[in-house]
Design brief:
The complex is a heterodimer. Chain A has one domain. Chain A has 3 helices and no strands. Chain A is rod-shaped, with a radius of gyration of 21 Å. Chain A is mostly helical. The mean pLDDT of chain A is 82. Chain B has one domain: Growth Hormone, Chain: A, CATH 1.20.1250.20. Chain B is mostly helical. Classes of the chains: A mainly alpha, B mainly alpha. At the A-B interface, helix 1, helix 2 and helix 3 of A face helix 10, helix 13, helix 14 and helix 15 of B.
């Protein structure tokens, strides 16, 4: 039974590092307001 | 470019808002903990096994996860002052109702209601932060509210256990419900929105960037968020961080007792240390984000890289914890893992308000938090499957 905790921690470590990699390589650019709402610039200027 | 100076009144109002939402989140986590604290007594009284208790927890977490998706949309329409206040009352009623349950099914429904009513807490904290702070200043307040998720679990076991041993588990449930209703009264009494607060022209200039949040998104615009790779990156990353957080929060005491042969009495003390390190990690992560932005680093980079480094370091210390030879060594390594994990998580919450347009911060936050709670639902089950 005690060895299983080692596997659980290994899975936790891999998933945490995967989260870092997802953020590093998948998140490149902010979402542009104009892509979601073309008239956002006009609204913000009011 | 330096930001306009804020008046003392503005600073006070900003931090009162943050302390209130942090308190609401801590209370939110304490209410969740009542089931774990009352576990054995509830099983005894209802004649149910551990699996049935697990089902109560799963019912809560699945409801909480799925309610995350639309809540940002509603939050943007009614605002945090109304929604958090009402949610506090509703989740406190659900919490108290659990203490009055006569059958298992009634207890199950009370946990489902708790999951649904508690769901606005974190997205609302994003909205409060993005309403009250300039985008470059959101790290420290984010660190504060994120620490609420560690403050609650850190103080809940001694406080709730004392309450239960003195008055019984039912009184513990009802007391937490009453505390929540009182919390709602304090929230309505003290929380101000920027549009109703008495601010100076400089304060208004400081908040000018946040004004677009006054126009809530439409359903069509909200749906469009799912087309962006950035949103999916946040959802997947939140799944990973949610998995890690709940692995530690659910299994740490059992790990210390079963793997490191620490006594139950010492486990209570040792298991609290990583939670305190998580609080420090939340505050530190927020400070680092704002420090980097103030020194001219690109806004997205000043949030993204602390998050990446925090998660990599957390993964490293989690891997090192596999080699721990004693309870003390394991707690040290896991405390470092929790510290860096919370640096990463705080930076991630701050990142949301840097990559999403102002009007979409809350919706983006709630969508990604869905990923976090799916990870948080899978983690205890997967870890339990591996361990047992």
């Amino acid at each position: 039974m005690t060895g299983s905790f080692v596997i659980a921690l290994a899975i936790g470590a891999v998933i945490t590092v995967t989260g870092a990699c997802i953020l590093l390589f998948m998140l490149k650019t902010p979402i542009a307001a104009t892509d979601l709402e073309p008239n956002v610039v006009a609204i913000a200027a009011k | 470019m330096s930001l306009p100076a804020r008046s003392a009144r503005m600073l006070r109002t900003q931090w009162i808002a943050m302390v209130l939402i942090t308190g609401a989140i801590a209370l939110n986590y304490m209410d969740r903990s009542t089931l774990a604290v009352g576990n054995l007594k509830i099983r005894e009284e209802f004649g149910i096994n551990a699996t049935a208790i697990g089902a109560l927890q799963s019912a809560w977490s699945i409801t909480y996860a799925f309610c995350q998706i639309p809540i940002g949309y509603f939050l943007d329409r009614v605002g945090p002052r109304f929604l958090v206040g009402v949610a506090l009352v509703l989740w406190s009623i659900a919490q108290g109702a659990g203490g009055l349950a006569v059958t298992y099914v009634q207890l199950l429904w009370s946990r489902i209601a708790l999951g649904a009513a508690e769901c606005p807490a974190f997205p609302a904290a994003v909205r409060v932060t993005s309403d009250w702070f300039h985008v470059k200043d959101r790290g420290k307040p984010t660190g504060l509210y994120n620490s609420g998720g560690s403050i609650g679990p850190a103080i809940a076991p001694p406080l709730l256990t004392g309450l239960m041993l003195t008055f019984g588990w039912r009184t513990m449930f009802v007391t937490m419900g009453v505390v929540g209703v009182l919390g709602a009264v304090v929230w309505f009494w003290l929380y101000r929105t920027p549009s109703t607060a008495d601010l100076t022209p400089d304060d208004h200039a400081y908040l000018e960037h946040n004004r677009s949040s006054e126009s809530p998104v439409t359903a069509g615009q909200w749906l469009r968020l799912f087309q962006f790779r950035t949103v999916w990156a946040l959802v997947l990353m939140a799944f990973c961080t949610g998995y890690a957080v709940w692995m530690y929060q659910t299994w740490l005491p059992a790990y210390l007792e079963m793997q490191q042969h620490v006594s139950i009495a010492r486990t209570g003390f040792l298991a609290a240390i990583p939670l305190f390190c998580a609080i420090l990690g939340s505050w530190g992560g927020g400070y680092i984000c704002d420090w980097l932005a103030a020194r001219g680093m690109n806004l997205v980079a000043s949030r993204k890289y602390p998050s990446v480094v925090g998660l990599l370091a957390s993964g490293l210390f989690t891997a090192l914890a596999m080699t721990a030879g004693s309870g003390g060594e394991a707690v040290l390594l896991m405390s470092l893992a929790m510290f860096f994990l919370n640096v990463g998580i705080t930076a991630k919450w701050t990142l949301i308000t840097a990559v999403a347009p102002q009007s979409y911060c809350t919706s983006t936050a709630s969508i990604q938090n869905f990923g976090g709670y799916i990870g948080g639902t899978v983690s205890p089950i997967a870890t339990g499957f591996v361990v047992i």
